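Q: Got a minute? One more chain.
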Amino acid sequence: MEVPGKKLQAGPNAENTTYCQPCEQDDEFLPAEVYCKVCKEFFCSNCARVHRKQKITRSHFLLDQSNMPTSLGDHETEYECTVSCDIHPKETIKFFCKTHQTLICGHCAVKYHRSCHADVISEISKDFKDDQEYGDVIKTIASLFKEIDLRVSDVEKKVDVVAKLGENEVDKLRRYRKEVNKYFEEREQALLKFIEKTKNLDEKLLGSLKPKLKNLKSKVKEINVTLEAQGNNMIQLFIETKRAKKLLEGLQNDLADINKGNVIHHYEFRKDPATERLIASGNGLGTLDNIMTEEHEIASAVSDHGPIGLTVQGCGQRETMANSKTTVVTDLTGLQLSPAMDIPMKSPTDNRDCYLSSMLHLAESRLLLADWNNCTVKLVDMQTNSLVCQIEVPGYPWDICHLPGDRVAVTMANKGIQFIDTREQLAIGDHIKLDGNCRGIAYHEERLIVSDFYGQVTVLNMNGRVLRQTKRGGNRKELFICPDYLSVVGEGPTAFIYVSDRSRNTITKLDMNLNIIKTFEDPALKNPTSITALGDQLLICGSESNAIMILDLSTGQMTQLMGKKEGIRKPMCAYYSPQKSKLLVTEQSNNLLKVYNKIE
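A: Always. Here it is, folded:
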């Protein structure tokens, strides 16, 4: 037996024996029994015992005789790890904890990961460059480069659009200004101020996006360069890739935030058809309408401009920027109308006659209609009086309301609510599944108000969660029996819900907590259907009374606008366009959209 620490004499097999390296320095030749992968040294049993006890080396992994290399020449040359541990800066990262998916040093392994499964990075990283994880990171980098370049190009284009919009609309405004008298001098300056503020807002926004995108691209490039530099060092490549994954996730979120903010206002100067009559009232000259709302309403960006009567059209509502009051577009009472050429609504792909249950005015001259029988939503151009296109929906559509961001919500009987994008072409969006038989719908401050065929009115959030609702109807003791349509009138705390009940022949006013405020009825109104708000008046269709009624909200009086003698038969919905001076009416099982022109 060998005595520990005793010097061995060189024998015939001495050249094939691996000796303890620390002892060899003192000219003692003791056989090596363990190998330290961290220090890359062979130790005898005595030196190994000391190595395990020392504070600085107690965490090192030692290989026994069955696993250690037979000599220094047999041990493959490995790359050194030079990355410091985040927790222990004096230690280098050498292990990867699979349990916590974390890069750790020896101290971390001993103090925080004793019960975890930790791999030696130098062992598991040898073929890492061929691993899918590394490939996915490289693909993400390429994708980010491409996406950032697209966004840069988009910002450049919108910079030109913003500049041209300002120039074009100012030119239109000044040409029209020549047609009016000196009274409109102050009005012109107010509108110019609005354009300038909106233009500056957009230019400031786009200008702020450029450095953000440049900085983002620089960071991605830095990550890419770091990874490329470690192409031959698998240990470093593994570590840098793990770090890059977390950094890239943050950069992807930053890019998503930039994309959300990369929107501009599209506005257009529009002549006011009633300018001559409005000179005395101070509401003349025209309006600046936000024809393509891409972010929050322009009203939030403009303040302290005085009572100039500007209106912002977005999300289907027209708000007066002077004192935040709703603009009364026209007084419907006493309106004189004459029949015009009707608009055919049945398309070659329709299998049944149309049942146009709802109608909604979009930006410019576009009109959206729900066709119950054919499960479609149809788009009409009021400029050309023609059906432009239609889109199928997964159910029977009944009512439509505006949503922020150029979207609409459509109720679909037993299928719930379907969202549709209306920005360019009609496109199907998200869907909310609801119990019951949905009918009327309206939007107010991130809330949807929906009526049910069986007598219930419900307030939902935008994810479909019920916030409050009335009791289900079905008998005369309930609040509603058959509330087919509803409309929200007003803003903020002054907003109210108006509900038409075809079984009770009533229009009911509710507050936003669904408390009943007042009920309206008239002998000439039977089986009321759709409700359209225009200023302080409601346009209501009476299906069984063959009448279109006007409810004046300031007085509570109800008068008839049109009836059977004017050719009205079972009207479903009606809409009056002040810009076109036209009344449009749909009727039960009628393939035509009826048109009436205002008689001047």
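A: The chain has three domains: 1-77, 130-320, 337-598.
Q: Perfect, thanks.
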